[in-house]
Amino acid sequence: MVSPQPSLLSAPPAHPLIAPSVIAGDFANAAQDAADALAAGADLLHLDVMDGHFVPNLTLGPDYCRCLRRALPGAYLDVHLMVADPARFIPPFAAAGANHISFHLEAVEPEAIEPLIAKIRSLGVAAGLVINPPTAAESLLPFVHLPDLVLIMSVNPGFSGQAFIPSALDKARLIRPRLRPHQRLQVDGGVSPANARLVREAGFDVLVAGSALMSRPSAERPSIVASLKGLGRVR
Length: 235
Ligand code: DX5
Ligand code: ZN
What we know:
The termini are far apart. An eight-stranded parallel beta sheet has the order 1-8-7-6-5-4-3-2. The radius of gyration is 16 Å and the shape is globular. The longest helix has 13 residues, at 110-122. By secondary structure, the chain is of the alpha/beta class. The chain has a single domain (17-229), classed as Alpha-Beta Barrel (TIM Barrel). The chain contains eight helices and eight strands; from the N terminus they run βαβαβαβαββαβαβαα. The protein binds D-xylitol-5-phosphate and zinc ion (ZN). Residues 21, 23-24, 46, 48, 80, 155, 157-158, 160-162, 188-191, 208-212 line the site of D-xylitol-5-phosphate.
């Protein structure tokens, strides 16, 4: 059994890391579909957890995470909580094998942010802090030193397949210089080979890819991953 890589996000990557969003893939063949994306060169799996309250959609819960962990013991599982009460779902996702859990700044009181990050870490899991498109990047500044990863949403969360919102690029330019080498800067929503260069140049080093990768046939995925990383031609 290949052991998970808890340190995957803690060192600056030579090339941006690619995180396929599994909700854009084939739920009926989830493990095979996720394994195929990793075999295509992707680095970690992004699990979008939606509760129908914080966002207008329902997706997956801890049991899905547990099944994916069992099927893919070596995969790095990045759980993105889009839920109204993240504290409630952190322990079950940690128990289900998550390597990383991100929660939204908009979902909690400011004074809860540091304790929640500490709670996630106490469970042996890396922690991420997320902002939505309407939230100013300046809102992150008091907390930017705390998480292992900052996630700047480039769509309003809820669904795959939406258009990239360019203001995420300016937010990245503000936040990137304030991060230390062990901290990652992730972008999520509407990322594709067509805008990946702009995204990379703005300072993002973990790129979530939903429909641009997971809605494409297996045979196309290696070249899409290479394009996202800046290693291939722009498609
Ligand atoms: C949006 C989710 C994203 C989404 C990305 O609410 O957080 O992770 O699945 O999908 P694309 O890349 O299609 O925007
Ligand atoms: Zn996401």
